[in-house]
Specification:
Elements lengths: L4 H17 L2 E2 L24 E10 L4 E10 L5 E4 L3 E5 L4 E2 L5 E4 L4 E10 L4 E6 L2
Antiparallel strand pairs: 1-2, 2-3, 3-8, 4-7, 5-6, 5-9
Length: 131
């Protein structure tokens, strides 16, 4: 019986740790809120034909930051979306591109993608693109 205790412990501990990894939807900052963090190093996303239509920030207890981002290809032709065309703005003023991601998006097409912005102590406040 003593040999079975570690097995019982693992069976009941696993579901708890799996819940800690679950992403929860974070409250979004309204579009009318103007943020003015300094950007001395002029960190910006690369120029592209992609427009952020909207986004839904998500996070978990481990500090992982994700977002479901709805993008529009404003060009008439097909374009390859790459993560360097977006930038996440965090509550401490830090700016970070999402993890590497590529997807072909047809002209004038609107798509939603789920992107990781890595681990961060502060929440993701905004996702921006640059024309």
């Amino acid at each position: 019986m003593k040999r079975l205790w570690p097995l019982f412990f693992l069976m009941f501990a696993a579901p708890v740790s799996a819940q800690d990894d679950a992403l929860m939807i974070d409250q979004s900052v309204g579009a009318d809120v103007k943020l003015a963090f300094p950007n001395e190093r002029n960190i910006q996303p690369r120029s592209s034909n992609f427009q952020v239509v909207n986004y839904v920030p998500m996070s978990n207890e481990q500090g992982e930051r994700w977002a479901i981002v709805t993008l529009k290809n404003t060009s008439a032709g097909s374009r390859i979306f790459e993560s360097q065309y977006l930038m996440g703005l965090f509550a401490d003023g830090d700016r970070r591109a999402p993890s590497e991601f590529k997807q072909t998006i047809e002209g004038n097409e609107v798509v939603s993608v789920t992107l990781s912005f890595g681990r961060h102590k502060f929440p993701l406040l905004n996702v921006i693109a640059r024309d």
